[in-house]
Amino acid sequence: MKFGIGLRREHFGEIMDIRRNRLDFLEILSDNYMFRGGRPRTVLRQVLQRWPVAAHGVGLNIGGLDDLDREYLDLLRELFREVQPPWFSDHLCYSGAHGEQYFDLIPMPFTREAARRVAERARQAQDHVGLPLLLENPSYYFVMPGAEMTEAEFIREVLEQSGCGLLLDINNVYVNAVNHGYGAREFILSMPLERVKQVHVAGHDASGPFIVDTHGDHAVDAVYDLLAWTAPKIPDAWVLYEWDNSVPPLDVLLKEADKMRKAAESGLCANPGEAA
Amino acid sequence: MNLREAVDRMHAFLRGEAEAENLPEQWNIPRERMEYYRDAVRGHVAGALESNFALTRAVLPGDLWDELTADYIRRFPPRQPELNHSAEPFPDFLADRISASQEIPGPALVELSRIEWLEWVALSNREEIPPRHDLTEPVLNPTLEIHQCRYATASFIGEMRSWMHDEERAKPAWPPPETGEIAFVFRRPDTGFVRTIPARDGHLFVLKMLHEGLTVRNAAEEAGCSGPLVKQFLKAAAAEGFAILPLK
Q1: What does the H/E/C string look like for chain A?
Q2: How distant is the alpha carbon of residue A85 from its chain centre?
Q3: A38 vs B123: CB contact, 8 Å cut-off?
């Protein structure tokens, strides 16, 4: 396994103070780099000299009804020429409609029609960008009416039809399992784990009537337990700690990444050779 | 329900054109879970406005900012995938919405918001600032944006930022005097941060000189001043960050 953190603006001034072997990789939010020059691109260039970089996005709108945004895909491809990520990733949802951007992850109806459509667009996006696309299981707070299958079946259907990889967000599994009342481990076992290339771990907010995936806190022990349990099944995955809101000082984030590494490695040591 | 219908119904809800209780029975979804999405979608744009127009917000009285942003979000749904661009039409929106009054001088507010938007334009400009060792002649910073102001808005921006860092200083008066000035907005080559300054005579001299590609000697001859004075202007422009000088 490899372990990393997201490159965030708040840490631009000190990211290069980290020793190379403290982290195995960094992840960028592509949308924060593809549209702009200046300091983000300068820091990115420095980072690329030291670490491999994975690329994650929020604007692909893979589940949308509007045509795929060619300009967006062109900019992604241009960015990736420099970054050379092993893959690119975005969320299995839609993020805009009728030409409007939501900048949020809106749940798809779990239907065969939706799965077919996403799979077709995912193939187009991969062809255009020229890299494998990983789709992330997003958090969602209600099931869209008209579901013909479960969330797990929907994800499997899309991945099988599209050939995409899976970015398994362990915190989202936990959040969805609690919010929708299913078993997190059963869900993970029902995923095509051989397709998991990357994992996300993050914090959430459980103070309201339902849990919200905020990426703004430490991960809870239950999420680390789930990571430890999952790790031996996906021993080659790149595991990332995502902290996007109320971003803490870099040393706090690094300590959280250490905790994440420890949890995953404890799972690997306890149950070696379980790979999917 | 097909995909189109699901997306359309959700769209109407997110836009505020339909309420949760008006959705068909099969959308029997807890209201707070639906509203989470509407709040999030609006919140992203509101956040982009807050970060890109922090000073415009700071000079507005009371709840007017909230009222304006709510109206803006209704009328200007974002069309571009880059979040900050959802804020781009805001100065034009303000120009339509704010009429001149003693309390909120519309033109001054619109001018302030236009310069704040130019700050984003300069900050995010994809043009590379040339490294000094690649240069043989002085050049203008390619991120430089210029705005002709009716008010002393560039000076006001500098004073407001100083005050925000050190509240023991006197808070600058709003609106700024209607004395007119030219604002230079650019990304600093050394820090990558954006800067807004009122252009002084020496700055304008350097702008003209580098824009027209004049040498120090030609510029001095044309202006009837000495070569050392021209070099002094160039050094000052480089120290500000809107001109880049060769290393040697």
Answers
A1: CEEEEECCHHHCCCHHHCCHHHCCEEEEEHHHCCCCCCHHHHHHHHHHCCCCEEEECCCCCCCCCCCCCHHHHHHHHHHHHHHCCCCEEEECCEEEECCEEEEEEECCCCCHHHHHHHHHHHHHHHHHHCCCEEEECCCCCCCCCCCCCCHHHHHHHHHHHHCCEEEEEHHHHHHHHHHHCCCHHHHHHCCCHHHEEEEEEECCECCCCCCECCCCCCCCHHHHHHHHHHHHHCCCCEEEEECCCCCCCHHHHHHHHHHHHHHHHHHHHHCCCCCC
A2: 14
A3: yes
Contacts of A41 in chain B (CB under 8 A): 126
Query: Which pLDDT score is estimated for B28?
Result: 85
Gap from B72 CA to chain A (nearest CA, Å)? 14
Contact B14 A94 (CB under 8 A): no
Fold of B127-248: Outer Surface Protein A; domain 3 (3.90.930)
Q: State how far the Cα of A276 lies from the Cα of B239, in Å rounded to an integer.
A: 60
Alpha-carbon span B164 to A145, nearest angstrom: 49
CB atoms within 10 A of CB B165: 8
User: Running along chain A, 276 residues long, what does each successive block of 10 average in pLDDT?
Assistant: 97 96 97 94 97 97 96 97 98 97 97 97 98 98 95 98 98 98 98 98 96 96 98 97 96 98 95 73
Q: Which two tokens stand for residue B237?
A: 């422009």
Which chain A residue lies closest to B142 (C-alpha atoms)? Answer: A38
When mean pLDDT is compared over A247-256, B10-19, B58-67, the highest value belongs to A247-256
Contacts of B45 in chain A (CB under 8 A): 103
Chain B residue numbers with beta carbons less than 8 Å from the beta carbon of A82 are none
User: Quick check: B44 and A35 CB within 8 A?
Assistant: no
CB pairs under 8 A between A and B: 109
Distance from C-alpha of B238 to C-alpha of B230, rounded to nearest angstrom: 12
Across the interface, which of B26, B81, B83 has its CB nearest the CB of A145?
B26
How much is the pLDDT for B105?
72
B74: nearest CA partner in chain A: A100
For CATH 3.90.930.50, the residue range(s) in chain B are 127-248
Best of B28, B82, B85 to substitute, by most chain A Cβ atoms within 10 angstroms, is B82
